[in-house]
């Protein structure tokens, strides 16, 4: 039993004015602790602290900021084991994945630390000999971040490290379902010497917090990762108050296996990628399209792979897939599969809850799913894989592109012609061909269409936190 996850406001760890909420272990459904919930007075203190911190943090040299962030990264690495344990208890993913997420998050901090030192301005030739024209890239202001429960540390870290590296303070609302690992992430920044008010961590009723923080005057930028409906709502709020906004929303990623693909390599990647984090990954492949020549072999191999996965509590030896993160996801999977089956789909494996304790759902493979089934048009965000055959690659690409979401796309093919057809034709913010090649700190992560706008990671990710200040100076004789 762990205790109550606290908030960090103005450099003080504290409880919240709105009481607490329970935190559950999704493997058992048991209460494992509580999380402090903010009221408006707490948010006001966070806003005041962050506004004051902007004046000082934005003037700390990029070199010094970088040194502090690198220290936070080192602390995070050294605490990865303990933080990974907290994450598995509250989120359910297998412990090695949880620990790996923490280690990878330290790399994100290092990237932001170094990239923050390379935010360059521009000298623009002027029309007069005594005039200098400089375009500066300056920190935007206070950031309000909203991070989700599927990757409690690696989603929050992108927002925190990006903001801090660019010289912006942040108020981050981390997920109430998985608060303990986020507390420890933020503690690494505080222990590394990030001054009071630069990182503020809050929890609470998500809608109350976003509706209060987004319009607040000191907040200049909003960064949200979560579902499309919530993202649209927050985007509207941000637009109404003319605030910059990065939205990392859901997807429904196609996974195409072309006629000339290396099918063994495709299968080896597909099963692990689909069921990682029980499918609760925004870029998870969720519409498998396989050339008819390989279809039966692919389906058989995929079903075998799904059935061989060891599903269980995240600390148990050899477990490859944990429970779903909460009861909502379990209900969602049951509804997706029931809808598809009612429309004629065949359940090749899974399609049911495992046990009656915790939120386990069997790795599920469906075939013959009609295009109008909910599973084909809404993001499943769970361990359910529909597989369909195709005969023409052009048609498969067209189908892959027909949804309003466009986060990631995966494909296998070998000839140069196939690869360029896939790379050019697939509409997605991230296209990965013949391997898994997305989501590293140095590459841009983000979607097209309703999957959102803006990027996290890469040079593009840092751009989100700075704005342009143009200074034109004429030199005059006294
Ligand atoms: P949800 O839409 O209720 O919540 C998603 C996240 O947004 C949660 O962390 C939640 O706390 C937060 N949130 C919800 N309403 C908010 C508001 N008004 N203001 C600020 N934050 C708010 O959905 P859920 O049941 O928690 O998750 C399921 C859906 O969320 C999935 O279908 C998936 O599309 C999406 N999701 C996406 C990601 C991602 O990485 N893009 C991560 C988690 C969830």
TrEMBL record:
Keywords, sorted A to Z: Oxidoreductase
All residue ranges annotated as the Aldehyde dehydrogenase domain in the record: 18-471
Stored InterPro entries: Ald_DH/histidinol_DH, Ald_DH_C, Ald_DH_N, Aldehyde_DH_dom, Aldehyde_DH_Superfamily
Protein EC: 1.2.1.16, 1.2.1.20, 1.2.1.79
UniProt key word Oxidoreductase: yes
Family: Belongs to the aldehyde dehydrogenase family.
Entry protein name: Succinate-semialdehyde dehydrogenase/glutarate-semialdehyde dehydrogenase
Organism taxonomic ancestry: Bacteria, Pseudomonadati, Pseudomonadota, Alphaproteobacteria, Hyphomicrobiales
């Amino acid at each position: 039993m762990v205790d109550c996850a606290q908030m960090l406001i103005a450099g003080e760890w504290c409880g919240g004015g709105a009481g607490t909420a329970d935190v559950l272990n999704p493997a058992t459904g048991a209460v494992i602790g509580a999380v402090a919930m903010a009221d408006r007075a707490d948010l006001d203190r966070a806003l005041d602290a962050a506004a004051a911190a902007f004046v000082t943090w934005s003037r700390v040299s990029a070199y010094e900021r970088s040194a502090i962030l690198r220290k936070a990264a080192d602390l995070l690495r050294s605490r990865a084991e303990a933080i990974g344990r907290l994450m598995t208890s509250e989120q359910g993913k297998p412990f090695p994945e949880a620990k790996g997420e923490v280690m990878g998050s330290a790399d994100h901090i290092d990237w932001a630390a170094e990239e923050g030192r390379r935010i360059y301005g521009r000298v623009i030739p002027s029309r007069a000999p005594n005039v200098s024209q400089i375009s500066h890239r300056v920190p935007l202001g206070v950031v309000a971040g909203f991070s989700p429960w599927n990757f409690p540390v690696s989603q929050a870290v992108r927002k925190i490290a990006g903001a801090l590296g660019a010289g912006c303070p942040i108020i981050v609302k981390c997920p109430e379902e998985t608060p303990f690992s986020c507390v420890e992430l933020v503690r690494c920044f505080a222990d590394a010497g990030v001054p009071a008010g630069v990182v503020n961590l809050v929890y609470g009723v998500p809608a109350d917090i976003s509706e209060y923080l987004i319009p607040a005057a000191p907040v200049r930028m909003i960064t949200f990762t979560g579902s499309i409906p919530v993202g649209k709502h927050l985007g509207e709020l941000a637009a109404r108050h003319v605030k910059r906004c990065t939205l990392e929303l859901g997807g429904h990623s196609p996974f195409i296996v072309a006629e000339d693909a290396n099918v063994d390599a495709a299968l080896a990647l597909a099963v692990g990628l689909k069921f990682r984090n029980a499918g609760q990954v925004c870029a998870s492949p969720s519409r498998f399209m396989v050339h008819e020549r390989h279809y039966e072999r692919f389906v058989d191999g995929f079903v075998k792979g799904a059935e061989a996965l060891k599903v269980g509590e995240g600390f148990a030896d050899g477990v490859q897939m944990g429970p779903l993160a909460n009861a909502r996801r379990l209900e969602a999977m049951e509804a997706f599969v029931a809808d598809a089956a009612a429309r004629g789909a065949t359940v090749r494996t899974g399609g049911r809850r495992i046990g009656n304790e915790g939120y386990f759902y069997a790795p599920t493979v469906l075939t013959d799913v009609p295009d109008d089934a909910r599973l084909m048009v809404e993001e499943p965000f769970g361990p359910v894989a529909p597989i369909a055959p195709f005969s023409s690659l052009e048609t498969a690409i067209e189908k892959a592109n027909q949804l309003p979401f466009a986060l990631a796309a995966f494909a296998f093919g070998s000839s140069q012609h196939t690869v360029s057809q896939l790379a050019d034709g697939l509409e997605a913010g991230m296209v990965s061909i013949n391997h898994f090649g997305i989501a590293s700190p140095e590459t841009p992560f983000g979607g097209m269409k309703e999957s959102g706008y803006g990027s996290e990671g890469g040079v593009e990710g840092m751009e989100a936190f700075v704005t342009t200040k143009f200074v034109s100076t004429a030199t005059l004789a006294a």
